[in-house]
Amino acid sequence: MADRYNPQEIEKKWQQQWAEDRLYETDDDDPRQKFYLLTMFPYTSGDLHIGHWYPMAPSDMYARYKRMNGFNVMHPMGFDAFGLPAENAAIKRGIHPFTWTMQNIENMRRQLKSIGAVYDWSREVITCLPGYYKWTQWFFLKLYEAGLAYREKAPVNWCPTCQTVLANEQVVGEGVCERCDTAVARRDLEQWFFRITKYADELMVHDGIDWPERIKIMQRNWVGRSEGTEISFGLDHPGVDEKEIRVFTTRPDTAFGVTFMVLAPEHPLVEKLTSPEKKAEVEAYTLKSRRQSEIERLSTEKEKDGVFTGACCINRLNGDKVPIWIADYVLVSYGTGAVMAVPAHDERDFAFAKKYGLPVPVVISPPDWDGEPLAEAYTGAGPMVNSGQFDGTPSEKGIEAVSIYLEKQGWGRRTVSYRLRDWLISRQRYWGAPIPMIYCDTCGIVPVPEKDLPVLLPEDAEFKPTGESPLKYNEGFVNTTCPRCGAPAKRETDTMDTFMCSSWYFLRYCSPQYDGAAFDEAKVKQWCPVDFYTGGAEHAVMHLLYVRFFTKAIRDMGLIDFGEPFTKLFNQGTIISGKQKMSKSRGNVVNPDDYVATLGADTVRTYLMFVGPWEQGGDWDDSGISGVSRWLNRVWNLALEDYKQHDNDGNTGKAETELTRMTHQTIKKVTQDIERIRFNTMVAALMEFSNYLHRVGEAGTVPEAAWRESVKTMLLLLAPTAPHLTEELWQKTGHDYSIHNAQWPAWDESLTEEESITLVVQVNGKLRDKLSLPVSVSEDEAKKLAAEQPKVRAHTEGKQVVKVIYVPGKLVNIVVK
Ligand SMILES: [Zn+2]
Ligand SMILES: [Zn+2]
């Protein structure tokens, strides 16, 4: 009997060997075709469980598969180390975020090494180290130079618990902070923004990249492009300079039916227009709405309310005086911050008009309309009525006709509106890359000169959140001199959103130690764009949109020559446990270390691929992983057992043909499954193949050499999934180190084909058809296929099948009456 399978021993041994031999270091000078496979780098949050392995282990398998297929593969790993999770955890534990983050990195690195991944650790990037964030700051300056970074006072989402500004994308559910579930409030602050809206149109288009449809749809919805018309309503208010209010509408055909105007409570005109007697009411309402999040304000559940300002504007189309209201469902940050209300043809406006007794004139006639008041809003098409010279025009045509008229009169223009807002990147927190800007009383905003980068994050700052930037109180940091005039000046004390750090890390991996620039241009040319990017779908409208914007922006600066960072994208699902999401409070968190220590990393890896389709995820189950462990033990025994050939003359030829066919079919199936990211069925095919090889081995019906060759093929096919086990068996069965440098097996299509038989199909004993079927066809399949043939059905349809006679490999006779 051969040695027992001992994963603990062989896994450590091979990991050490591979590291010593630098087996997985990526060589820039390797002439083979490049393949850049990237997994989203993890947050250093410290909350490690098997879920963190789920994005990693299968993509490592894929990287190994590509290596064996002759590609020069780069599959790097690093850490997204700045940001709130690290800072909050550090505060909770009373240790410095740097210390805490670096401890986590050490632990995560150890774990990631224990899965035996092909990561080239010499390429590791850590975003919180000055060697990295120097270049994050450099990119900020580049964006500023290009006019893509600007500072503006803006209402922001404010989390009172985290004491920081949140991006719109970080406000979730019913307007709560995505990290701590606190209701998000509003605040005004001077903030830095990136002009992502400049790229709105280009971000809508995903040409030439292979991304999941749902991510593309989410991004397009997030950008929210709509074509419409901007209409100017006249304003003639004593003491107010503004002479118009502009609104955006996709339904200019309804503009004759406007009976009120709604401004966002924060709209700058509100203060100027509100009449003295309405002032108190308007102010109270504004205060109330500013305390609510955008999502609360836009919620369809909530009843719409508002307050009349006491002022009116003019609908230039018909000369009507239109009362101006404020309501919180209009947001100052969306569109123009003003909305024209057409209650007869908009559900929300209809409810609002009913509530406040505002008129509801019909301007698009519903079918069979009798002139009576509407019971509900009519949002469909129809002839225009009560619309002056446009009466009788079908509303679909009216959209254009009214727009053209407005343009001619100088009262409006056709335009495009977007839901997308500019990217707010200022964070009033300590643990981030300082924004490299200086404020001088004389010169204003002055960028830090490139030669002075990085602006170091001081270690001695008090980092507990106060609602203001902690760096404000660090005198050594704040006080500086103006790079332009030399006078005393102050530094910007906000730090950057960590999504800025992750917008360019894929470039840094190409030349991680390079200090002459953010990246070595030649290396980026060689490796980028990323061929295959994997990670969670939760990043659809944050990271994945920001990184596309960033890539396009620096392309336009001439820094790179491509506009899409990731050619192919794949989103993995989630591992749950006991049918529930893993969480500490549920006590169902699976720690990979425990399983690696007992069953081995190869078993954990294989189980993660077997547990379900990668894009769906699966339910972690101890009996499931035990089954995989037993299987790998059988593979071990299979490869090392003595082969006893029996003496069964005459049958060997047939058995050998079958062995060849099974082997080539398995190569084909495994290869195609990996290419299609069907890793669970790939493992299942290998299980089936090993069981077959075991049976043949027991029976001893084929020549030993042929059998051993098939076992060798199985090891090669299993190598990316279970790298340690296969390396050990490869060596023990006398092959040259390393299996991971071996060539992936190829299949011969002609050898995968089953031998076929000709099946005669009769109905009541008369020949009706002939079928060519594989020799292995089952009785049920043969009968089913026979019955389905049109020539057969012509004689059986409408009749009762009495019986079906089957002669294996020869005939099916269907008896009907
Ligand atoms: Zn929060
Ligand atoms: Zn100055």
Describe the structure.
With 817 residues, the chain is an alpha+beta fold. It is 36% helix and 19% strand. The protein is built from 27 helices and 30 strands. A four-stranded parallel sheet has the order 2-1-22-23, covered by helices on one side. It starts with 6 loop residues before the first helix and ends with a strand. Residues 159, 161-162, 177, 179-180, 182 line the site of one zinc ion.
Number of beta-strand segments: 30
β-strand percent reads: 15-25%
Average predicted local confidence, pLDDT:
92
Radius of gyration: 34 Å
Shape call: globular
Bound compounds: zinc ion
The helical percent reads: 25-40%
Ends: how far apart? Answer: 63 Å
Q: Main sheet, how many strands, which sense, barrel?
A: 4 strands, parallel
Low-confidence stretches: none
What strand order characterises the main sheet?
2-1-22-23
- Strand-pairing-aware structural class: alpha+beta
The helix tally amounts to 27
What attributes does this structure have?
817 residues, alpha+beta, 4-stranded parallel beta sheet, 4-stranded antiparallel beta sheet, 30 strands, 36% helix, 19% strand, binds zinc ion
Give the helices and strands, then pairings:
Blueprint: H1 7-20, E1 34-39, H2 56-68, E2 72-74, H3 84-93, H4 97-114, H5 130-145, E3 149-159, E4 164-166, E5 171-172, E6 176-177, E7 185-194, H6 200-204, H7 213-223, E8 226-234, E9 244-249, E10 260-263, H8 268-273, H9 279-290, H10 294-298, E11 306-315, E12 320-327, E13 338-341, H11 347-356, H12 395-409, E14 412-417, E15 423-424, E16 426-427, E17 437-440, E18 444-447, H13 475-478, E19 479-481, E20 488-491, E21 495-496, H14 498-501, H15 505-508, H16 521-527, E22 530-536, H17 543-556, E23 566-572, E24 574-577, E25 580-581, H18 592-598, H19 601-610, E26 617-620, H20 622-640, H21 652-675, H22 679-699, H23 704-718, H24 723-732, H25 749-752, E27 756-763, E28 766-774, H26 779-788, H27 790-796, E29 801-807, E30 811-816
Parallel strand pairs: 1-2, 1-22, 10-12, 22-23, 24-26, 27-30
Antiparallel strand pairs: 3-4, 3-7, 5-6, 7-15, 8-9, 8-14, 10-13, 11-12, 16-21, 17-18, 17-20, 19-20, 24-25, 27-28, 29-30
Helix pairs in contact: 1-24, 18-19, 19-20, 20-22, 21-22, 21-23, 22-23, 23-24
The protein binds zinc ion (2 copies).
